[in-house]
Amino acid sequence: MAAKGLFITLEGGEGVGKTTGMDYLEQYLLEQGVDLIVTREPGGTRFGERVRNLLLEVQQESMDDMAELLLIFAARAQHLREVIEPALEKGRWVLCDRFTDATYAYQCGGRGIDPAAVSLLETLVQGALRPNATILFDAPVSVGMARAKDRGELDRFERESNNFFDAVRENYLARAAQDGERFRVIDASQPLATVKESLETVAVQIVEAARSRGAL
Ligand code: T5A
């Protein structure tokens, strides 16, 4: 049976440079001969992209925090069954822009939902599947928000307060500190060239580890 692929997630607050970093990482891994797919959350399927629109669009009526959480996991269930799990089974690597660490950071850190509720849904929807490696792009909230604002109209999350985003960042950093084996933290406040260098160091480590385990 073919070896299972690697599941790599990119995380971080608003506008920190995940999408830019993803393009760079994808290019690097392709050059190393990795067979991969790139996807994102919320989204990644037709159903998930519709849920994404619901979650990100600015609405007249407020969205209940639990409704938001369940929508995120509904999109995730579809994404796992339709895209992520089949790719991993075929031995392909999956690069995903945000995954369940974002739910802990935003819905628990930001919204104040009990992490036990997220943990229950995580087990229900994902079973034992967790990312093999997670790259956390970390920058002060003011840096990420300035980049996001430069890009134009802010979405429903981007309109949250600085306190909300400080709590998101703290939650991410605490999770990274608890699981140093899975997380690699990159200082995303640096100029793009420096961020790319850090990303390359991380990518080399991931590829070498995969080669030494015979997974590549
Ligand atoms: N969400 C998601 C939850 O609440 N719970 C969940 O479980 C999940 C999965 C998704 C939203 O959903 C929420 C979180 C989010 O609010 P998103 O589009 O994935 O939205 O998240 P965003 O952070 O909004 O993604 P962005 O595309 O806005 O930000 P990126 O990808 O981090 O940043 P990027 O690469 O687009 O860069 C932003 C700008 O900065 C420049 C880029 O050129 C770009 O213009 N830039 C730099 N400039 C200077 N120096 C650098 N080092 C730079 N790096 C990038």
TrEMBL record:
Transmembrane segments: none annotated. It is an enzyme of class 2 (transferase). Residues 10-198 form the Thymidylate kinase-like domain. Coiled coil: none annotated. ATP binds at G12, G13, E14, G15, V16, G17, K18, T19. InterPro entries: P-loop_NTPase, Thymidylate_kin-like_dom, Thymidylate_kinase. HAMAP family: Thymidylate_kinase (MF_00165). This is Thymidylate kinase. The lineage of its organism: Bacteria, Pseudomonadati, Pseudomonadota, Gammaproteobacteria, Cellvibrionales. The gene is tmk.
